[in-house]
Design a protein that fits this description.
The protein has one domain. 30% of the residues lie in helices and 24% in strands. The protein contains four helices and five strands, in the order ββββααβαα. A three-stranded antiparallel sheet has the order 4-1-5. A two-stranded antiparallel ribbon has the order 2-3. Strand 2 and strand 3 (24-32) form a beta hairpin. The longest helix is centred in the C-terminal third of the chain and has 14 residues, at 102-115. The termini are far apart.
Length: 122
């Protein structure tokens, strides 16, 4: 299975088992790569990041409440065959916690200019 993430950070999904005294003990950790919309040292900004997981790990992920929520909110999707990252990532929601890019900066500047008083007006 392939997991396509549009999250700004790597995400570790954890499966717990009950231990002594009914305490949660980590049974399995599954890392899904993030860093979508984050510029790399090579000045590449990926729209989405693909992680390959085993079928067993995918079964664990399907039961994880955080993974379910990320899927429902449109930050993550999964595929049986390797998808075209650029096309598939466009269908996902962008993680709003990602650093500002030029598009966001321009939108913020326009909003602030509309709200700010015109100091040149007489």
């Amino acid at each position: 299975m392939y997991i396509l993430s549009r999250l700004a950070n790597d995400q570790v999904y954890i499966k717990y088992k009950k231990g002594y005294g009914n305490k949660n003990i980590v049974e399995k950790e599954i890392l899904i790569k993030g860093k979508a919309d984050i510029t790399t040292r090579q000045l590449i900004t990926p729209m989405g990041v693909l992680t390959k997981v085993s079928d067993d790990d995918f079964e664990i992920l399907k039961e994880n409440p955080c993974f379910k929520e990320h899927c429902e909110r449109g930050y993550i999707s999964y595929y049986k065959i390797k998808p075209d990252i650029e096309k598939s990532a466009q269908k996902l929601n962008k993680d709003e916690s990602a650093p500002l890019d030029n598009e966001k900066i321009e939108k913020l500047a326009k909003k602030r200019n509309k709200k700010a008083p015109n100091i040149n007006a007489e």
